[in-house]
Structures are given as structure tokens and as C-alpha cells.
């Protein structure tokens, strides 16, 4: 491969990093501020999160006998774990968070073979619903960013809307009039152009770059020796199982996009890689990790399906985690610019889910009920987060996230109808034999 080819791979990998960067740094910022971490601790949390995202991505791309799904996936810190981590940290302390993450990751790693077998319980009506719910749950974040980001004094201003829709227009125009490499980089070009315009509008703050250090090495147990409490451990195991189910939907969506059929062994290797990534997150005091759905939208939009691109993204993330000064450059991208780009990718995730649902038999009333209830409850929990505020804390931790609520609804309803159908079939056969 020549220099031009390497530059293309690097550029496409960088585009993947930009696509997931906002989500990757948002989780440590939310959790760190909720737990009242100092500025120095928060800086470490962001840096180690990026580095671990890179390692986790490379683990999935490795694709050896034991690890790796073998698809162009990018891993990032899971939004599913945000509320449980804050709850555990507030009640048991930050050391209990990382003790529970370590155990949760090891649980997924050890029982990966079991999870590989139960993927048969996830037909297109479940996986399509889950992927659609993921996209629908992400869209509100993209829309809020288009308006300038929650808490921004000029939220919804004309300037923010012009920026976000300008980025959206660039992406659409490049996909309409260009092809090949230029079309594949449409999201990256949109973000860069939007950021340049934002600089002239006075919407870019370079202070985060100036204050960031040049080198920051990772430390095991940065926040102290982890503690192991039964309550947080059980909560995190449930969170990790939901993360695996979410990733299963993303794996299936990507397999369709890449025309690569997945076997039970592929899923087991993918689950092992995620379990190991989650465990590393606990050891380095980072986060549970899962396959990012927004990057699926980017794969579909760019039509670049090779693993070389996500391998490049993994090394870029590691570099950003080791050199906070460079990582700070990505933090200057205004929310409105990110919003214009991410709303397209989140919408593409929904499109992937709808495409998967196309394989569903819509003449079957049970399938319609599964889709209707899971999408309604998943979207409802996303737009009305106080829906379950009256439930006990242990249950509220599980259902407070729209993705978890919708996913569990789809899975449980499918099991309910499958069991009922099997029982009805068995009864019919018994009666026929008796007669």
C-alpha cells in the first residue's frame, strides 16, 4: 500500500473517531461531574477513556481463534452504564463502581459461549427492533446538539441552526454529487468545514487545548483499589448483559451491510472481546464498553466496509488518549457542528433497523405487537426519563434507559409469544393424537 492508500485509510479512520468522539467523551464528563471529580481527575477520565476505546476497538478487529467479531466495529463507553455508575458511586463510592465493572466484564467473558447459544432467541423482529430503538434513542441527543447543546445560553439560536444545517447540507451535497473516496469522507468534511466557519463566528474555544498536557500515561487503579459489593455487582452484570444484547443488534446490522453471515462462534468471539474490554475499563478506572451504533451509520453512509479503517481508528484513539493536547483539538468542535453530522448517522442507524425489520412477517399479529410495544416504551423512556421515577432504586437503575427498556421489552415479548406458540402447538398435537 502506497502513501496515498495509507492517507485514505487514516482519513477514513479519523472520520470514525469524529463520529464517536462526542459520545466517547460525554460519558466520562457526565459521570465525572456527577461524582464531583476534580479537574485533574476529570482530565484523566477522558484521556483513559479514549485510550481504552482504542484498545477495545483493536480487540474486536483482531479476529483470532478466541477474540474478535471480524467486522468494522468501533467500541466506545456505553451510555447504558451511565445512570447505574452514578447511582453506585453515590451510594457505595467510586471504588465500588470499578469493582462491579471488573466482575461484570469477567462474567461476560466467561459466559460468552452461553450468550452465543441464546442468539437464536433473537430473530429479526427482536434485533431489528433493538437497532431501531438504539437509533431513536440517540436522535434526541443529535437534535439537542443541533440547537447548541443542553445548557448552552444560545440554545436554539439562528447561528446554531445555520451551523448544524450547513454541516447537514454539505454531507448531503457530497453524497449527491460525489462518489468514491470523497463521498466516503463526507461526514469528516462536513465537521471540518463547520468548525472552520464556527471559528469565524467566535464559537470555538481553544482554552482546552492550551491547558491540556502533552503526555498522560495510563495507571491501573488510578482511583484506588476497587471494592466488591454484591448490590453493585449484580446491577453491573445486568447492565453488561444488556450491553451484549445491544451489541448483538449492531453486529447483525453490520453483518447485513457488509454481506457477511455471522456464526455462533463469531458471536462468542465478539462477546469475549467485549467482556475483556469491559474488564480493562474496570482495571484502568474507565467504563464498560460496547459497539457504537453511530459508527454503523457511518459504515452504511461511506460504503467503506474494511477492518483496516477501524484499526486505524483504534490507533488514533490510543494516540489521543496518550496525548491529551491533541485530544483537546477534538473538544473544540461546537455541539451544533456535531449535531448536524450525528443526526445523519443516528438516522442511518434507524434505517438499518428498519431494513432488518423488512425480513419480519408483518401478517403475524405477534410480531406487530413486539415492534409496537418495544418501540413505544423505548422511545417513551428516552423522551420522558421520569417515567419510572416511582419504582425502587434497584429496578429504576435497569429501566431508566430507553435502550434497556425497549430492548428488554422486545426480548421478553418474543420469549412470551414463542413459549405460548410452542405450548399451543404441543397441545394441538396431543389432542390430535388422542383423537
Helices and strands, with pairings:
Blueprint: H1 3-34, H2 39-62, E1 75-77, H3 82-92, H4 94-110, H5 112-117, H6 124-146, H7 158-177, H8 180-184, H9 186-200, H10 207-211, H11 230-257, H12 264-283, E2 289-291, H13 293-302, H14 307-322, H15 324-331, H16 335-357, H17 365-383, H18 393-399, H19 402-434
Antiparallel strand pairs: 1-2
Helix pairs in contact: 1-2, 1-3, 1-14, 2-12, 2-14, 3-4, 3-11, 4-11, 4-12, 6-11, 6-16, 6-17, 6-19, 7-9, 7-16, 9-16, 11-12, 11-13, 11-19, 13-16, 14-15, 17-19
Keywords: Cell membrane, Membrane, Transmembrane, Transmembrane helix, Transport
Family: Belongs to the nucleobase:cation symporter-2 (NCS2) (TC 2.A.40) family.
Subcellular location: Cell membrane
Account of the 3D structure:
With 435 residues, the protein is mainly α. Helices cover 74% and strands 1% of the residues. It has helices at 3-34, 39-62, 82-92, 94-110, 112-117, 124-146, 158-177, 180-184, 186-200, 207-211, 230-257, 264-283, 293-302, 307-322, 324-331, 335-357, 365-383, 393-399, 402-434; strands spanning 75-77, 289-291. Helix 2 (39-62) runs antiparallel to helix 12 (264-283), helix 6 (124-146) packs antiparallel against helix 16 (335-357) and helix 9 (186-200) runs antiparallel to helix 16. The termini are far apart. Residues 424-429 have low confidence and may be disordered.
How many angstroms does the end-to-end distance come to? 72 Å
The ordered string of helix (H) and strand (E) elements is: HHEHHHHHHHHHHEHHHHHHH
Number of strands: 2
Give Rg in angstroms: 22 Å
* Content of β-strand: under 5%
How many helices? The count is 19
The strand order across the widest sheet is 1-2
Could you list the spans in which at least 5 consecutive residues all have pLDDT below 50? Answer: 424-429
Form type: globular
Helix content: over 70%
Category by helix and strand content: mainly alpha
Mean pLDDT, all residues? 82
* Largest beta-sheet details: 2 strands, antiparallel
